[in-house]
Amino acid sequence: MSSDRYGPTFQRNALAPGILLAILLVVATLLLDSEWYGTLRFVIAVLAIIIGWFALQAKHWWWVPLFAVVAIAWNPVLPFDFAGQGWALAHVGVALLSLVAGVLIKSPRVDDRR
């Protein structure tokens, strides 16, 4: 009997939020001057917190400060007035970071069938 008979022995909980965060960051780059940007900032901050939580659960603690900074920088409650080309590049950089984190953050799969 092989150990992978029932699928992988790990799960990537941060992959779906990481992909969604990357998509939203690219869309937000296109809508920086729009009225929708405030709503996108809220969703971006929440997804960053979710990815940080999954990283903490998987004991990949080094991702937590990175996504805490993302949640703070994109928070809509006390927004920072970042603008310009550097802020647009930050969107793209964090989009790539979220994809990498989504792939690398993995935790052991819990088998409920036993």
TrEMBL record:
<protein>
    <submittedName>
        <fullName>Uncharacterized protein</fullName>
    </submittedName>
</protein>
<keyword id="KW-0812">Transmembrane</keyword>
<feature type="transmembrane region" description="Helical">
    <location>
        <begin position="86"/>
        <end position="105"/>
    </location>
</feature>
<dbReference type="Pfam" id="PF20619">
    <property type="entry name" value="DUF6804"/>
</dbReference>
<feature type="transmembrane region" description="Helical">
    <location>
        <begin position="61"/>
        <end position="80"/>
    </location>
</feature>
<feature type="transmembrane region" description="Helical">
    <location>
        <begin position="38"/>
        <end position="56"/>
    </location>
</feature>
<keyword id="KW-0472">Membrane</keyword>
<keyword id="KW-1133">Transmembrane helix</keyword>
<feature type="transmembrane region" description="Helical">
    <location>
        <begin position="12"/>
        <end position="32"/>
    </location>
</feature>
<dbReference type="InterPro" id="IPR046548">
    <property type="entry name" value="DUF6804"/>
</dbReference>
